[in-house]
Queue: 2 jobs
Job 1
Amino acid sequence: MQSVSVNTIRGRRALLPATLGAALAAALGAGLLSAPMPAGAADLLTTAKARGTLRIGVEGSYPPFNFKDPKSGALAGYDADVARLVAARLGLKPEFVTTEWSAILAGLGAGKYDLIVSQVGITPRRQLAFDFSQPYIYSAPQLIVRRDDQSSYASLNDLKGRKLGAGQGSVFEQQARAVPGIEVKAYPAATETLQDLAFGRIDAALNDSLMVAYLLKNSRLPLRAGARVGAVERMGIALRKGNPQLLAALDKALLAARADGSLARASIKWFGIDASRAP
């Protein structure tokens, strides 16, 4: 795995659900995502093959999922590897379009790229506006605790009367606040959460399980992974509705990459585990 300083991580993954929900609502309100494809419009797969490239929306600043390699400047990360795998199986050259997370959904609705490979969770609400490929990665909420802490937190209920840190505005903050008795402290960045945890200002932190593995791998703080305390989340490739050929091609490419071990190898490369299959 390429080395990326933990100081570059802002806990964006933790902010995905809340931020995405706001962006989705804004885009729907603007009519960008709900408009049907014009009658007779070509499927995006046909358009992409005529162009020779697959335009892929990605945030580009969210390691280890998608980020610019500090040495080469090329896009790296699990999402980038998956996008390249899929594009190659479609016989297309990947063309990455980096976009601020707050605008990435609106950009898809406006046709700035063909699809998004950037840790977009598959939820019923989002499926009203987009089509999604089959999942290409799975994760779940997970606790982080101090290495010398002998407490056994098997669920959020075990943290009643304790202090729990989570990303500000994140689904993890929402989950923590839904449990009465937990004193929740919200943080703008994962690094600040980990520092406060290491110094004993909070008793545990809550983040994405894959991000937990990456944070701990790149941090020298005396911390360890705790229990997984929530439902599994599925991430898929998002695309505009009305493109059944492209959707079928994406699913076929992901099935082939899963069958030959390509997805598993990419996951192990970045996370040390195979997160491409449901736990």
Note: The chain is about 35% helix and 25% strand.
Job 2
Amino acid sequence: MSRTLPFVPFVAVVAVVCAGCGASRSSPSGAPLFTRNMPALAGQEKTCAGPRHKTFDLDVVQTKGIALGMGLTFAAWTYDGRLPGPTIETCEGDTVTIRLHNDGTVSHGLDTHAFRIDSRKYGPTAPGTTLTITSVVDTPGVYMYHCAAGPVTDLHIKSGLHGAMIVYPRTPLRPARSLVVVEDAVYGRPDAHGFIPGTDPAMAQKNDEAFSMFNGRLDNGPIDVKPGDLIRIYFVNVGPGVSSMHVIGDIFDRVSLGTTWIHDLQTDGVPAGSGAILEFRIPGPGVFVLVDHDKLAYVPYGLALKFQTG
């Protein structure tokens, strides 16, 4: 497998866990959590109290460069100029309309795994045009959405056109501090200045990522929590491969890949193109690290989210 970053021994994980402690992502007690590239959620209560017909507008933006951290910049194709795209929050039973405005130079589309519609409606749509899709969302869960561009769909997804969509249940969930985490990857090599000019089709076809990331960054700071906090992760795995999600120092209280909860798991496997709700409780003072256990080699490069008590 190709590597764009120098080898770092696994003992450097300790340094990664402690690095950036002065740049933690702090929220008031009980508030939703966030990372450098992922804003806090509106949440179930506010979303489900809103209108039953929700409309979302997304713009395709083919960027000239998005900062990833660690001195790297990537010429990503994005929704709304963000990597990953904006989180779409909906509630069970809502009628959802998504309008995709293609401001790019090639055809793009949008496929959300939360819809039950004719697959031909996902596009693609030509540059300068708008694609509109509508469906009732009737199955609670966390879903991936991504570009739909015919035979080049895989390349477009791996170039950055993906995000998370949440369908909250109408029945209230137990109180928790929530966060969206999207695991994705970059398939390209940086030049001498750390610039990755785009996705290498040969690397993408072989699922040969240069590195994987959480929420489009290699430099997420620690997240401040308190002992006893229940943490709820709305997780999407863009790929490649199965994400083996694990919290170093803790056990998942419960997880769900759909509507059924499984309790007391040490590691949960989430296939590429799928999502899961992962819940764990902060057991006491310390640092607890969310990782993909199948990609521990990338932890020194930032594939880790640190939850730390004050």
Note: Residues 44-168 form a domain with the Immunoglobulin-like fold (CATH 2.60.40.420).
